[in-house]
Design a protein that fits this description.
19% strand; Spore Coat Polysaccharide Biosynthesis Protein SpsA, Chain A; alpha/beta; nine-stranded mixed beta sheet; single chain; 307 residues; 9 strands; 2 domains
Amino acid sequence: MTVFQFKKPAKIDLSIIIVSFNTRDVLLDCLTTVYAQTEGISYEVIVVDNASNDDTPDSVAEKFPDVHLIRNDINKGFSSANNQGICESAGKWITLLNPDTRLIENSFQKICGYMQEHPEFSLLGPGIIDEKSQQSPTRLWEDTPQDAAWKILGLYNPNDELQRMANTEEVLVISGCCFVINRELFEEVGLFDENYFLYNEEDDFCRRAREHGKRICFFPETSIQHLHGKSTHQPEHREKVILEAYKSNLYFYSKYYSCGWNLILRSLYKVTFLAGLIRSAFRHLAGSATQGADDSLRLKLKLLLLP
């Protein structure tokens, strides 16, 4: 049964969708590498700008006139903006690409070739390397409630994932910074859940795909460089990122975890918020508090009081 209908037929190999919010410089660099490295396939680039105020859309329009640019009047969030791009796409495969990524080789030709040869996979994630060209730990399996608890408490070490990544092909989830999807999958499972403003949307989509019997591939034969945090660690917007991440996590827990685990995880959050409020209060009294969201008493109190 078709649950989503595209506006356009699949006329090209690949649609590359990039959601931007005040990431002009890294986005322009990303686009430069996409056009410089991508050959041998037909493709389009769709940029959905979430009401940036750093001249991002005008700069993209000037320097990359071939880009299909969608300008939003408000920040609609990551899932909603990607859905806008998906609705306008005409690719056989659709890639969701973060603006703080760079192509270091002709990755998309390799990816399309692999997916053409392996139609058993509906989703694919390439390898990810950091700014020093070192392999980044990439989560390839579902977050369990226990994992969520360790993350809330600050005890989760993502570097432990590197050992588990070895010799892995079929996986449970893939990284959201470069997320390649067979177009037909959207027609079967629908678009991204727009209740996620930021974070968890890729894990949610992968779970929905597997519920429909679809398979997911990790493809380390090519890698994308990810400049971690360039999009989400902007100081002037850090408070909103923290708030939306918390709301997204709670929604994800309510959707996939038991009532008992929801209670436990919410309680752990409240304990960490209270501890953070006390620490920041002492720092303010001692005159050692940092500027911005990390030591904001108002933010920590707001998080503590949120339902």
